[in-house]
Design goal:
The protein has helices at about 1-20, 25-35, 40-45, 50-60, and strands spanning about 65, 75. By secondary structure, the chain is mainly α. Strand 1 (about 65) and strand 2 form a beta hairpin.
């Protein structure tokens, strides 16, 4: 009985990790994995990523910035936007 509980907790942890890497709620992923077991983990793996949340995280971390012309997310080091092709001015040193 204890082994089954440990396995279900591991499904919850795995689903939480997958969901948080996709920009979704890790707590919700844990609940889904714990309650549904392997089916919850499969659902977490199949779910699409929340691109808006991932974009916010990248912008907040300082790894990415928005293109001043097309507002797409590009790397901080970029000199040319890969979406619109416009030249991107360098950021002032902080």
């Amino acid at each position: 009985m204890e082994i089954l509980l440990i396995i279900w907790v591991l499904f919850g942890i795995a689903a939480a990790m997958v969901m948080s890497n996709k920009g979704r709620s890790g707590c919700g992923g844990f609940a889904m994995g714990f309650l549904l077991g392997p089916i919850g983990l499969i659902i977490a793996l199949v779910m699409g990523a929340d691109h808006r949340e991932m974009e916010k995280t990248e912008l907040a971390s300082g790894n990415m910035r928005k293109c001043p012309q097309c507002a797409e997310v590009i790397r901080v080091e970029a000199k040319k936007c890969r979406f619109c092709g416009s030249d991107v001015p360098p950021l002032p040193p902080s």
